[in-house]
């Protein structure tokens, strides 16, 4: 895991198996330990820009992560 400190902005990419199941997430580091990092999701990349997540976007992301690999 790369070095990160509390308050750093990071970008995470989740490839869930297909082009329409790819998420680019902007987040802020809340807490960091040796083997874990807690982040607050701020926005996602859509239509070539970062926009705030809606409850439906969060549900889609959670469902995709839970179903990944099945």
Strand content: over 45%
What overall form do the CA principal axes indicate?
globular
Helix and strand content put the structural class at: alpha+beta
| DSSP helix fraction | 10-25%
Counted beta strands: 4
Give, in order, the helices and strands.
Answer: EEEEH
Uncertain stretches: none
Largest beta sheet: strand ordering: 1-2-3-4
Mean pLDDT: 86
Query: Roughly how many Å apart are the termini?
Result: 26 Å
Count, helices:
1
Radius of gyration (CA) equals 13 Å
Main β-sheet description? 4 strands, antiparallel
What does it look like?
The chain has 70 residues and is α+β, with helices and mostly antiparallel strands. The protein has a domain at 9-56. The chain is built from one helix and four strands. It has one helix at 55-67; strands spanning 9-15, 22-32, 37-46, 49-52. Strands 1-2-3-4 form a four-stranded antiparallel beta sheet, with no helix packed on it. A hairpin with a 2-residue loop joins β3 (37-46) and β4 (49-52). The longest helix has 13 residues, at 55-67. The chain is globular, with a radius of gyration of 13 Å. The termini are far apart. The mean pLDDT is 86.
Describe this protein with a few key phrases:
4 strands, 70 residues, 4-stranded antiparallel sheet
Present the secondary structure layout.
Elements: E1 9-15, E2 22-32, E3 37-46, E4 49-52, H1 55-67
Antiparallel strand pairs: 1-2, 2-3, 3-4
State the gist of this model.
By secondary structure, the chain is an alpha+beta fold.
